[in-house]
Amino acid sequence: MYTLQTIETFAQEIRKSRFQAVSGPVTSEAAARNFIDAHSEPSAGHNCWAWRLGAVYRFNDDREPSGTAGKPILQAIDGQSLDNVAVVVSRWFGGILLGSGGLIRAYGGTAAACLRAAPKSLIVPRVHAQVRAGFADLALVKTRLLSVPYLSIEEEVFTAEGAELTLALPEREITNVRQLVGDVTSGRSILLVSI
């Protein structure tokens, strides 16, 4: 899964109607609602939207025929394997009716083009863990830990014997990091995963 790094916009005209999409990253339902409120155009006839946060999603057709706007926008999000994303597509009617199929293509296509243009980053599920290391092992432990992709040392608290490191590490690396810590310290340190 991926998410967007920044807010992106895209506009196009389809049979004299103007469509403008704004997409961006969101971290909660409240943030998604705020994004929609902030990027809906008051002068547009319709401000249709969709967002996804993991298994939770919402979409709205904003008075367009049912299923012709919000759902195609959500399908554009899902079609690009995106998460933690909101999209608003505003439409200014140009006088030519597009029909249900035309609306589905217009809203979904505008959202998809906007999402394709946006810079993305990989979502890596991470967990928190602690490692206690003595001063003799500390430098080597930190060096080896930081060689693990997507692992970060979030906090380092020094004690009389060494330091306690708080880590954020990818879930899929728990077993490897546990083995690494044990090997580097000859079993003197262990990885404790927070629940």
From TrEMBL:
Coiled coil: none annotated. Belongs to the IMPACT family. Residues 15-115 form the Impact N-terminal domain. SUPFAM superfamilies: EF-G C-terminal domain-like, Ribosomal protein S5 domain 2-like. GO terms for biological process: regulation of translational initiation. It comes from the Bacteria. PANTHER family: IMPACT FAMILY MEMBER YIGZ, IMPACT-RELATED. Pfam families: DUF1949 (PF09186), Impact_N (PF01205). Residues 132-188 form the UPF0029 domain. InterPro entries: EFG_III/V, Impact, Impact_N, Impact_N_sf, Ribosomal_Su5_D2-typ_SF, UPF0029_Impact_C, UPF0029_Impact_CS. This is YigZ family protein. GO terms for molecular function: guanyl ribonucleotide binding; ribonucleoside triphosphate phosphatase activity.
